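Memo to structure team: turn this sequence into structure tokens by end of day. - J.P.
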Amino acid sequence: MNSKNLIQIKQFCLYHEIEDTFISNLNNYGLIEIIILEEEKYLQPEQLPSIEKMIRLHYDLKINLEGIDAISHLLNKIEVLQKNLTATQNKLRLFEQHQIE
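Reply from structure team:
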């Protein structure tokens, strides 16, 4: 894997003024994935929005890692349910259109 598109954890933590142990703890909880290349730790860019959300939950709202894990799980469930609802609404519209014709 090429480190060109990856974000170095040290730089990310410096930018956000957080400890790198927080990122390690998120990884230990299975909330994020850390990539290790040539003894350096990296994050995938796709993870940044959720990691930044977890940073705000922890540092601004003082929510512990167990709480972040629960919130993350619930938010993922809501996202799946919203996708299912949208798909069902689209099927219903198609069905209604066929009934009218």
